[in-house]
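Hi R.,

Here's the input for the hypoxanthine complex you asked about:
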Amino acid sequence: MTKLSEMLQETTQFIQSQGVETVEFGMILGSGLGELADEIEDAIVIPYDQIPFFPTSTVVGHAGQLVYGTLSGKKVLAMQGRFHFYEGHSMQTVTYPVRVMAALGAHSVIVTNACGGVNESFVPGDLMLITDHINFTGQNPLIGPNDETMGPRFPDMSEAYTTTYRRVAKEAATKLGLTLKEGVYMGYSGPTYETPAEIRMSRVMGADAVGMSTVPEVIVAAHNGLKVLGISCITNLAAGMQANLNHEEVVETTERVKQSFKSLIKETLTSL
Ligand code: HPA
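And here is the predicted structure with hypoxanthine in place:
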């Protein structure tokens, strides 16, 4: 048994001892978007600081707990707050919860984030379906020995964001009368926001949005063979496209659009 699988066994045993049973969908709720977990029925809440091998989350707007239960008729295990590379966690730690979701039986993960809009047609408050990503973190959570029981040495990333799930999300948006933009998410390490020059480069490279999360988790989801739905909230225009950037604006925008965000995820989940 590898070190990783031993750790996973301990973590999953603990989580199951708290009453968590079947998990269908893992959910990672980004900055300001954690409120969706409050709608989970028959909820079991497990603070991160009780979970073996979980670090504690520190960023404003992140609660730091797992919430398990039923949402839109599906068994979900949601992270209210995630771990970021810029907090000093290793890429393996950042992505450990995705391994845990897979070990608990999840077949899919719904990944959400707050990010900056690079595409000039985007405005703050837009929701964006992630069609693909660019890993610009300079890191990869799969560097190191490969555990073949988890996934292949060289995972295919051709369809990291599951095509059928994207179609379902678009149908859900239409049904709700919501505008859902689509685009490529470019992941930086942070914690600095990008410079205007970096944003011009990102646009030339094909990015529609930039952020400091999601990419590592989706890489590990792909490695584990999980299906992925990614939804971004464009909380601000990226550097050089508006006066200045700050975390308060990020939280304010998520606050403003959280109803639409929650409806979209719930409606999509109903049909997945
Ligand atoms: N850049 C990177 N991450 C972000 C941004 C941004 O503009 N907004 C919210 N998260």
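One thing worth noting: The domain at 20-269 is CATH 3.40.50.1580 (Rossmann fold).

Cheers,
M.
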